[in-house]
Amino acid sequence: MKRVAAALGLLAVAAACAPASTEVAERRCAERARAAAEPVSSIGGVAELGYGSGGMHTDLDVSLTAGVNLGGGADPYAAYDRCVRRATGQGPARPLVLE
């Protein structure tokens, strides 16, 4: 019984390390490439209101960040190609389509 469990565990590990199917890898890598190509923006801030020995004090700090995230400056098409090759050991069967 222990040998069967060990064999099943080993089989599960081997399956996890096996290359992904091209279709699964392309879908996963396309999602990553699309997310990397989308603009990134954020708005944040801190407001403080208090009363102390010196009287009332207020503080307001606002920040705005807007830009484009290309996965560290990488071309999304090249990143897609590398991702699929890393996952499957071969190039993508379908090109990346950014909508």
Provide an overview of this structure.
There is one protein chain. This protein has 99 residues and is α+β, with helices and mostly antiparallel strands. The chain has helices at residues 2-17, 22-37, 76-88; strands spanning 39-52, 55-68. It has a domain at 20-88. The chain has a two-stranded antiparallel ribbon. The protein starts with a helix and ends in an 11-residue tail after the last helix. The relative contact order is 0.22. The model has no long low-confidence stretch (mean pLDDT 75).
Concise description?
This protein has a two-stranded antiparallel sheet with strand order 1-2.
List keywords for this structure.
99 residues; alpha+beta; 3 helices; 2 strands; 28% strand; elongated
SSE layout and pairing:
Blueprint: H1 2-17, H2 22-37, E1 39-52, E2 55-68, H3 76-88
Antiparallel strand pairs: 1-2
Strand order of the largest sheet: 1-2
Coarse structural class: alpha+beta
Return Rg in Å. Answer: 24 Å
- Sheet of most strands: 2 strands, antiparallel
Order of helices and strands: HHEEH
Strand content: 25-35%
Give the tally of β-strands: 2
Low-confidence stretches: none
User: Helical amount among residues, as a percent range?
Assistant: 40-55%
Keywords: Signal
Protein name: Lipoprotein
Signal peptide: 1-20
